[in-house]
Amino acid sequence: MKAHPAIAATASTVLLAALLAGCTLGPDFQRPDSQAPQQWNALQGEQAASQPVAEPLQLRWWDSFHDPRLSALIEQVAARNLDLQIASARLLQSRALRSTVAADELPSVDVNASYSRARNSAEGLSDPSGKAGKSAFNLWQGDLVAGWELDFWGRVRRQVEAADASVEVAENDRNGVLLALLAETAGDYIQLRAVQHTLQVTEDNLKVARHSLKLSEDRQAEGVATRLDVAQANAQVASIEARLPTLQARRDDLINALSLLAAEPPRSLQSTLLDAGALPAPEQKFAIGVPSQLAERRPDIRQAEARLHAATASIGVAKADFYPSIRLSGSAGFQSMQLADFGNWDSRRFAFGPQLSLPIFEGGRLKGTLQLREAQQQEAALNYRKVVLGAWHEIDDVLRLYNASQLRRDHLAEAVRQNRIALETAQRQYVEGAVDFLNVLTVQSALLASEEQWIDSSAAVSQALVGLYKALGGGWQAFDKV
Q1: Are residues 344 and 304 in the same domain?
Q2: Using CB atoms within 10 A as the burial measure, which of 68, 70, 356, 474 is most buried?
Q3: What is the distance between the alpha carbons of residues 129 and 186, in angstroms, rounded to a whole number?
Q4: What percent of the chain has a predicted confidence (pLDDT) above 90?
Q5: Can you give the residue range of the structural domain that contains 334?
């Protein structure tokens, strides 16, 4: 009993499709387990004032500082930074490369046309012009040429899979650049505000030192103070004044650093950043997400996973090279020796048929390539584990640093309060003659040092929080992708 022609044709089509798509050599990529802990260890037993909570991570974390200038600056950097634009250009290159690789999945069609004026040798092989090499002739040719590789073993599919993974590598490289820029911008801004506050404290202390100088000069005029007291007071004023140029230079350096991040010329942000603003401070509660989501957020983990994916797919490409490749090709067109005859039915020509290429002896090249791809896949797998483990350590370290910074800041705040009381007491006792001027100078130096340390520690708390958000991989998702 013969099968119906339509059924036979359908069966042939299904069989061909199965042959073309059903065999893909090499291991299929399995997403590795990031082995995330159930909760952040540092969330347990913390006593600092500002506490992290395991709630969905705030992606626009810079807004939690409630500083409009910082938020606007970060938007400006994300829109204009040159390093980010370079990374975006690399991403576009990767996507373009993927398109060229994916083109092998489809047939190629070309049109060729040529004209030549030629003369063959009279002593050589047969002359297709029929003139036995005695005179020159014209040759007009035009062809439509098509070709398609039958991807029986999945070589092309694995190449496209590896190219897709390479695009993910480039995407996460860009995300990583953006994440680093956000953290660097916030860190420089916080440091700038800290320097400006230190400048203000130094200027305030300079006023106190000048008041003490006048006080000692008045007491010398009254005969109750010595020249030593005046000299010590003058030295104190000069010592505090010497701090100002360095702080001012540091302030200008930070403004320039922020200008560079925003792709602006030097000093371009002076008008908006020169005036001191409040030092960005964290909220008492802030969300840091859950550990199981970290692999989705951190660009370096996503990039390591994509590299592993690409390396795994490359094994399939190397294995497919051991098998024969089959390519269907054909051409149809016209050929004539006279332009008037070109295009006539009698000038037609065509050719079609399969091309088979089977590797017989490659001197170990194919085997060596396969071993190389397998070793590269092993390296990528180890690198993924290393990146993930490093991420857990980084987060744990930053959480502890954040809490330790808060405790240090709080202790220094108490030191500042006590030193201010001590200075007021020392100045009063000096006027009363109960202590000498050296006590006043010592206490004032201690106050200035503790105030500077308190400002630095307050900035360190905010910078540690920025580092924590960076370690958690938050922020880059808030901006449009390329």
Answers
A1: no
A2: 474
A3: 79
A4: 51
A5: 109-150+325-358
